[in-house]
Amino acid sequence: MLEIRNLSASVGGNRVLNGINLTVEQGEVHAIMGPNGSGKSTLSYVLAGHPQYVVESGEAILDGEDLLAMPAEERARAGVFLQFQHPVEVPGVRLDQFLRAGYNAIHKSKGLEELDPLQFDRLLQQKAGIVNMEPTMLKRSVNDGFSGGEKKRNEILQMAMLEPRLSILDEPDSGLDVDSLRLVADGINQLRSPERAVILITHYQRILNLVVPDVVNVLMGGRIVRTGGVELAEEIEAEGYEGQDEVLQAQG
Amino acid sequence: MTQQAATIERRYVEAWNAAIAPSSSDVPAELHALRESAIAKFEEVGFPTARRGNEAWKYTDVAPIANAAFEDLAPAAPVRVATEALDQHIMGGSVWNRMVFVDGHWVPSLTSMPTLPPQVTVTSLAKAMALHPHLVRDLLGRYAPYDESGFTALNTAFLRDGAVLIVPHDTVVEEPIHFIYLTSSEGQSSVTQPRTLVSMGRNAKASVIESYGALTDTLSLTNAVSEYVLAEGAQLDACRLQQHSGSAYHVGSAQVRLGRDSRFTSGAFDFGGAIARHTLSVALEGEGSECTLYGLYMTNHGQHVDNQVLVDHIAPHTTSEQVYKGVLDGRSRGVFHGSITVQQAAQKTNAKQSDKNLLLSDEAEVDTKPALWIYADDVRCGHGAACGKLDDGALFYLQSRGIDEAAARRMLVHGFANEVLEHVELTPLRVHLEQLITASLRSSRRPS
Ligand SMILES: Nc1ncnc2c1ncn2[C@@H]1O[C@H](COP(=O)(O)OP(=O)(O)O)[C@@H](O)[C@H]1O
Ligand SMILES: [Mg+2]
């Protein structure tokens, strides 16, 4: 479904990604683990089309289409969803209205039914239950004054509403207490299906016990240095990231 | 005054001699005396065109207005008013009370007062001068001094008609009263002098909207003066909506006097005009009085909008808040001057001011300047001014959810304006404002 080949990218004049290769098939959950500053968020922004992140070389093909050539909104319409590590506060813009605009834009591009505010509200309230979000929060400004945990749950709610084919989740677990982590993990698991795929970026193994990945990748210094199964996550949990890049060099 | 300037003002004096002087017997003698002394004052002070040492007009060059060759300086009552053109100014359907003025003259056929309590007086100034001369004599011109401002002097000199609202004590007017001032010009460029007088009795409560606009896109000057007086415990919500055409000049001032424990809320909304300048002066004269003044200006192309907000805390325990926002596109320019004066006696004053601006183009400009004059020691004052572009991070966040760039920009601008719009309690007005914001964004045609 997604094929990333030799992708290099920079931001603010710094080269951050140095030849990423990654293939994600339908139905798969790919974990990407890596230390701080290794380029995990950069990869997610590059895939979602953030204009500040400059692709230097390489490609990313989604269902046969050149993902990197599309503006951000078209990527969303093609089924890409980015769960932001740091969701943006948008004062004055109501969450329900913002999300309905996105939902309808995506549906319209696919020739699917658009929803009026009443229909949309009904669906939104139902989905809000998944992440245990108060209905009053849906009428507040997007992320404005939300706690860290509320912002993360709000991201998962948006994912549940937009039903993306490819979800890129950038540290959905960071800063969450045990209860919120479970809600977020449940939300992700509910969306798992043979037609969809998930790239789950995380620093810790903790969430991988709740959302069990098919493949674990280790990102260091802007490239994937190791790929394996769940046992790789356990190894990192036990031994840390130090030495992971040497393992690669020894292998190869 | 220079020779050339004198000729500019001379034209207004001649028009006054031709149109106003002969009608002296139509109005009470005191009123005509007021007009006479006002035209003399205008001739003396003239337009504030000086570019040096003219603090009050530092950022707004009044020369284009002073030098404009308006064809009709004292237009007669219109023969016929195209009601279709009025539609874009109507709010509140058949519920709101409405009074329409065209070219400065009251149009009775377009006036309706479906929800006005019988003890409340809403009338045209011309009629009030005939029927209640004492009321007019006691109130008119008392709060809007014409000895300092050439524009106020001009308005007072050309006083013929306007709106008068008198709400007696302990009376609540549930539905708004909407004064609509339009310029028709009937093909000629013209000057009109709208005047509004509102007197709120003890514990009276009402909402008033002043709308300004043009029926045609002709060169014009609207020079408005409003006076609001609130007695003890009165509450008034007063909005001003300026949606002139791009060829119009608008100068206005409102003088507000607040009695003990009275509450004044005002919304100032500027969308139109080539040059628009408005001065809102609020005197918190009564102990415990409060005002909340909010405003939104949205400009484009070569527009210039200037808001002067002058708050004077005279009595103790008074509270004021100014919340203004600007959205500027094209080569437009916004000016905000918010001043807070706290007199020596005004202990326990609480005063806040903020002006935030969103610049949608590189050519747009804002001059925003707070001024605090504090002579009391036990006060709380806060102010802040800001100027910025649309947040790229927020723009990307919206786009990442499938919203195209143009729609995302519109959403963010609406979001920015919402901090002001959320103060607007009248739903029809809020809906109307949202439409004006949308229309203004459409007209900017930015590449996406
Ligand atoms: N906007 C930016 N400008 C300059 N450098 C940046 C910017 N964003 C990220 N970087 C740098 O890129 C590197 C990778 O950052 P990031 O992708 O956020 O890492 P991770 O998500 O793995 O912690 C870091 O060294 C970071 O400082
Ligand atoms: Mg990160």
Describe the structure.
- The complex is a heterodimer of chains A (252) and B (448).
- Chain A has one domain: Rossmann fold (3-Layer(aba) Sandwich), CATH 3.40.50.
- Chain A contains eight helices and twelve strands.
- In chain A, a hairpin with a 2-residue loop joins strand 4 and strand 5.
- The longest helix of chain A is centred in the middle third of the chain and has 15 residues.
- The mean pLDDT of chain A is 92.
- With 448 residues, chain B is α/β, with parallel strands linked by helices.
- Chain B has a domain of 284 residues.
- In chain B, strand 1 and strand 2 form a beta hairpin.
- The interface between A and B is medium-sized, with 34 and 24 residues.
- The structure holds adenosine-5'-diphosphate (ADP) and magnesium ion (MG).
- Adenosine-5'-diphosphate binds next to strand 2 and helix 1 of chain A.
- Magnesium ion binds next to helix 1 of chain A.
Furnish the topology, listing elements before pairings.
The complex is a heterodimer of chains A (about 250) and B (about 450).
Chain A: E1 2-11, E2 14-24, E3 29-33, H1 40-48, E4 53-62, E5 65-66, H2 72-77, E6 80-83, E7 90-94, H3 95-109, H4 117-128, E8 141-142, H5 148-162, E9 166-170, H6 178-191, E10 197-202, E11 215-220, E12 223-228, H7 230-239, H8 244-251
Parallel strand pairs in A: 3-10, 3-11, 6-9, 9-10
Antiparallel strand pairs in A: 1-2, 1-4, 4-5, 7-8, 11-12
Helix pairs in contact in A: 4-5, 5-6
Chain B: H1 3-19, H2 29-45, H3 63-67, E1 97-102, E2 105-106, E3 121-124, H4 125-131, H5 133-139, H6 150-157, E4 163-167, E5 177-183, E6 190-192, E7 195-200, E8 205-214, E9 220-230, E10 235-242, E11 248-258, E12 263-270, E13 275-284, E14 290-299, E15 304-313, E16 319-328, E17 333-342, E18 349-359, E19 365-374, E20 379-388, H7 392-399, H8 405-421, H9 427-442
Parallel strand pairs in B: 1-5, 4-7, 5-8, 6-9, 7-9, 8-10, 9-11, 10-12, 11-13, 12-14, 13-15, 14-16, 15-17, 16-18, 17-19, 18-20
Antiparallel strand pairs in B: 1-2, 3-4
Helix pairs in contact in B: 2-6, 4-5, 7-8, 8-9
